[in-house]
Amino acid sequence: MNTNSYNQMIRDFVEMADSMNRRMSTTPYDYARNGGHTGNANGGSTTARTMRLPIDAYSTEEAFVLNAYVPGVNPDDVEITFEGEELTIRGKFEATIEGVEYIKRELYHGGFERRVTFNVPVDIEAIEATYSNGVLTLRVPKAEAIKPKQIKVQVK
């Protein structure tokens, strides 16, 4: 028997068993466990919860670029700091409507944070942050020391 198909069969079985256990359970659907929100300010727990902000990052010859979706967040309420070799993005997704009893609440509400460590020199003074249509874009320029340099061949 092919090992890959056997492993896939086991994964499929475990996935089905988990699904059946959730379906047969007498406990209500756990929105927080499935990526949503329970409706409590702290996500249903007694301690404050901070979400790890997902990002897309890529590099050009000139800079590193990071994009993060932060719809509904006031750009003035986003805190961006650079200390040592670490860039930190912090903020909070506010609850949209207070005093409402939700039927379903799957959107995340609460704090978010993301830390990115740069192990190469960057130009801290030239970091730019822009916000457009709910997307936060950070441009972190590379230091001159690591930018590729074109070397002209001289004919003798």
Give your account of this protein's structure.
There is one protein chain. The chain is α+β, with helices and mostly antiparallel strands and about 160 residues long. It has a domain at about 50-145: Immunoglobulin-like (Sandwich), CATH 2.60.40. Helix content is about 15%, strand content about 30%. The chain has one helix at about 5-25, and strands at about 50, 55-60, 65-70, 80-85, 85-95, 110-115, 130, 135-140. The strands form two sheets. A four-stranded mixed β-sheet has the order 1-6-5-4, with no helix packed on it.
**Secondary-structure-derived class:** alpha+beta
Here the CATH topology of the domain at 50-146 equals Immunoglobulin-like
Q: What share of residues are in beta strands?
A: 25-35%
CATH architecture of the domain at 50-146: Sandwich
Low-confidence stretches: 41-46
Mean pLDDT: 81
Number of strands: 8
Terminus-to-terminus distance: 66 Å
Q: Tell me roughly what share of residues is in helical segments.
A: 10-25%
> Biggest β-sheet, characterized?
4 strands, mixed
Q: Please tell me what the overall shape is.
A: flat
Radius of gyration, CA atoms, in whole angstroms = 23 Å
User: So how many helices?
Assistant: 1
